[in-house]
Structures are given as C-alpha cells and as structure tokens.
Design brief:
Oligomer: single chain
CATH topology of the largest domain: D-Maltodextrin-Binding Protein, domain 2
CATH superfamily of the largest domain: Periplasmic binding protein-like II
Number of strands: 15
Domain Prephenate dehydratase: 2-182
Catalytic activity: prephenate + H(+) = 3-phenylpyruvate + CO2 + H2O
GO molecular function, one term: prephenate dehydratase activity
Bound molecules: prephenic acid
Protein name: Prephenate dehydratase
Site (Essential for prephenate dehydratase activity): 175
Radius of gyration: 20 Å
C-alpha cells in the first residue's frame, strides 16, 4: 500500500504514518496540496495530512484545500503527541543563543512562542513547508547562524544538534492528522491504538436567517449527539459568508445523524458529510 504524507522525511506527519502503517510504502510530498492532489490522481492509496493542533488550532491550508479544491473523503484520523526541539548545525551548538533566524512550519513556531520570546527575542522567524524541510534547510547551510524547530527524528536524519529540548509552550501538545482517500473506503487497520469513531460534516447556513446557528445546534442537541468540534471558515464567496465544520463523536448511524442532516436541510442549510471514520491515538 502506498501512503503519501507531508514530507520530506522526518516530519511529524511521517512519524504518525510510520506508527500507523509500519509496512506501507511511504511517499513524501513537498506540500499539503501536493499530497492531496496525489490522492485525487490515484498516485497513492491514501494521504495523511495535519488538520488541527491542540495549541494552535486548525491547519487552514488542509481544511481549505479539501473543502474548496479537492473534496476527498476522510477515512481515518491519527492523533499524535508533538515535541518540539530547537536544533542547529553542530558548528553552532555552543553559541546557539546567537542565531539570527529560526526556521520551521508556522504551527511549530506558534507552539513555541513563549520560549522564543524569552530566549531568542531578536531572531527572525522564517516559515517553511514543514518542520523537517526546515531541519534539512538548516543542515545544508552550516556557515549560517540559523536554527530549526523540529522533532528528534529530523535532528538525526539531517545531522543537527538539539540544543534545547521540549520547547513547546504547553505540555499537552497533540496534532490530529487525517487520512484521505479517493473513494470512501476504510483502510483495514487492526490497531490497538483504535480509540473510537467520529463523523465530520460541513454545514453552510442559509443567508441572513436570524437564529440559524442556534437551530443547527439544536438539531444535534435534542438527539443527544455529542459534538467535539465546531469551527467556522470563510466560504470565500463574500464577506460574512462562512461554513461550519462540525465533528460528531460517533459513527454514522441509520437514524440520528441522517435525521439531524434532514432537519438541517429543511432549514435550508447545505450539508456535506466529509467522513465517518475511526480515530487512533498514538
Ligand atoms: O511540519 C511537520 O512536521 C508537520 O508534520 C506539520 C505540522 C502541522 O502542520 O501542524 C504537524 C505537526 C506539528 O503541529 C507541526 C507541524
């Protein structure tokens, strides 16, 4: 089985894929859209991309690309712990406090703001496509006083020295990664990491209807459907036009979720099921 992921080697996405699919052929992609496109073009059997971090919130690029460009079904989710480390080329290990630039994924930099503010206030932040792309970049420029924020595997893979460990600002730092496929067919994963099932919906509210969100929520509430996430994103059709992403804490059933969807449609909402899938906690 071929699994694509946000690369290069040693991203957090790579770690999640390696744990969940130890025997799969792993194919790295430079960006999240490239990985999603590869699923859509059937170059790979499934793609794994980051969706949400406990400290920094949604990975908007993933959400927006899925919703607006390639609406692929979500067939699974992996929740993984995230530990960020500051690393430099070995030449700079003894004077790391003098680095002028810090390279990483924007989410990783955001997870370490307190540390950076306290210890490297003057260094410029440079966003890269992933944490391991940043580690690779730093390793290829030994003459420059620069650092990367990435995981331990990236330090090993690219020959960097970790100079500060666990620099993320809060202990509970986890990221959700979704598994997307071309067809809505679950991957056969028999794992002790299985932790439950979820259903994700996209709901577009009718225009200018007072109390519409309240009515949407009540369709779930009186059916006692437990929502684990509700988030709005711009519909990109005009100022003030938003859609909602709603996660329900259970598998698609034959009565409750279809009933809630029918009620929302009767309210003139547009509803799309993005997936009903198992999740795994590493
Ligand atoms: O850059 C990586 O290593 C990724 O896998 C991406 C990503 C993200 O997009 O949130 C994944 C986990 C961490 O939260 C930081 C970065």
């Amino acid at each position: 089985m071929k699994i694509g992921y946000l690369g290069p080697k040693a991203t957090f996405t790579d770690l999640a894929v390696t744990t969940m699919f130890p025997r799969a052929e792993k194919i790295p992609y430079h960006t999240i859209p490239e990985c999603i496109d590869a699923v859509s073009n059937e170059e790979i059997d499934a793609g794994v991309v980051p969706l949400e971090n406990a400290l920094e919130g949604s990975v908007n690029l993933t959400l927006d690309y899925l919703i607006h460009e390639q609406l692929l079904p979500i067939v699974g989710e992996i929740i993984a712990p995230i530990q960020q480390h500051l690393m430099v080329h070995p030449y700079h290990a003894h004077h790391w406090t003098e680095v002028k630039e810090i390279y990483s994924h924007s989410h990783a930099i955001a997870q370490c703001h307190k540390f950076l503010h306290a210890n490297l206030k003057k260094a410029k932040h440079v966003y890269m496509t992933s944490t391991s792309a940043a580690a690779k970049f730093v390793s290829e420029r030994p003459h420059l006083p620069i650092a990367a924020i990435a995981n331990r595997l990236a330090a090993e893979e690219y020959g960097l020295t970790i100079v500060q460990e666990n620099i993320h600002d809060y202990d509970y730092n986890h990221t959700r990664f979704i598994i997307v496929r071309k067809q809505n067919e679950p991957l056969k994963i028999d794992s002790p990491l299985y932790a439950g099932d979820k259903t994700t919906l996209m709901v577009m509210l009718p225009k200018d209807q007072p109390g519409a969100l309240h009515q949407v929520l009540s369709a779930f509430a009186w059916r006692k459907l437990n929502l684990t996430k509700i988030e709005s994103r711009p519909a990109k059709t005009g100022l003030g036009n938003y859609f909602f992403i709603i996660d329900i804490d259970q598998k698609m059933d034959e009565v409750l979720i279809p009933g809630a969807i029918a009620e929302l449609e009767a309210l003139d909402c547009t509803v799309q099921v993005l997936g009903s899938y198992p999740y795994y906690i590493i």
